[in-house]
Design brief:
The structure holds 2 protein chains of 2 kinds.
Chain A (H helix, E strand, L loop, with lengths): L1 H7 L11 E6 L4 H16 L3 E6 L29 H4 L4 H15 L5 H10 L3 E5 H6 L11 E5 L1 H8 L3 E4 L1
Parallel strand pairs in A: 1-2, 1-5, 2-3, 3-4
Helix pairs in contact in A: 2-5
Chain B lengths: L1 E5 L2 E5 L16 H7 L7 H17 L5 H7 L4 H7 L4 H8 L10
Antiparallel strand pairs in B: 1-2
Classes of the chains: A alpha/beta, B mainly alpha.
């Protein structure tokens, strides 16, 4: 115990830096997908190695047929401060999504398909979760070409070894 | 803040080594800053990125995002990361003598 305390107070200790992150994107709403993408892109911009693992509805962000149609959830989303009945109004989700996308474009935040391509080009690895792929009966052909592989949880932990894991 | 000497001239930098005053920079300092930050010999492609970053900052008061860097500098994203593996925007800003980019994108 004494030794441990002495160790942690060693004056030679360098400030820690993060060398690698593995980010899990599990939600399929616009506000569920963007934070993970921003974290992944931000990691690469700092020279940090990054992998992104898409699971459950988060896989919509890399699904060829769906990645252009990811929307803000307007029902059951207290952050919008919108009455539930109003959130369920036809077209409401599309309207709020358009507004948010417009605001993001002004800040130079790319739409999801472009953002994912940027992140892949920056050297981050994109992976789909095998359990979710099996559950939704998908194949590698359903995904954009930047997806490197469909991997198991075990393989994900192997890739993540030695780094930080961020679940979103 | 600290003072560093590049190409024989004293320069004010922040704690991370970014220039405080872009006016103190000259092109001759580039290779020395690059070497100190793990970027090898500067090629024309490196300079294209560095000058784009610097000129954008001097014109608009803010460094461009990585998205704009990839679209408008003439050097695509993949190559940007080959030229500057430890972060293209950050390193090009440092070598080009402008403050650290503050954007999240």
């Amino acid at each position: 115990m004494t030794e441990l305390l002495e160790d942690s107070e060693a004056p030679t200790a360098k400030p820690a830096t993060i060398e690698k992150v593995s980010i899990i994107i599990s939600k399929g709403s616009l506000e569920g997908v963007y934070p993970g993408l921003i974290m992944a892109n931000g990691a690469r911009m700092e020279g940090i190695e990054a992998n992104v693992f898409f699971t459950f509805f988060g896989m919509d962000a890399i699904n060829k047929a769906k990645h252009e149609h990811v929307k803000v959830a307007t029902v059951g989303n207290p952050g919008l401060h919108l009455a539930t009945w109003a959130g369920g109004f036809p077209g409401m989700s599309a309207l709020v999504t358009r507004q948010l996308e417009h605001a993001m474009e002004k800040l130079d935040i790319p739409p999801i398909p472009e953002f994912i391509e940027l992140i892949a080009d920056s050297g981050a690895g994109l992976y789909a979760c095998k359990a979710s792929v099996d559950l939704f009966e998908l194949t590698k052909d359903d995904f954009i070409p930047q997806v490197k592989d469909i991997i198991t949880v075990g393989e994900f932990y192997g890739l993540a070894a030695g780094g930080q894991i961020i679940f979103t | 803040m600290s003072t560093v000497t590049y190409a024989g001239a004293p320069v004010e930098t922040d704690a991370e080594g970014f220039f405080v005053d872009p006016e103190q920079w000259s092109e001759a300092m580039g290779p020395q800053i690059a070497a100190a930050n793990g970027v090898g010999a500067l090629t024309d492609r490196h300079w294209q990125v560095i000058k784009f970053m610097r000129n954008s900052y001097l014109e608009s008061g803010a460094a461009p995002s990585i998205r704009t860097l990839g679209k408008a500098s003439g050097v695509p994203i993949k190559e940007l990361y080959q030229l500057f593996p430890k972060g293209p925007a950050k390193l090009a800003a440092k070598i080009g003598g402008i403050p650290k980019p503050r954007g999240c994108i």
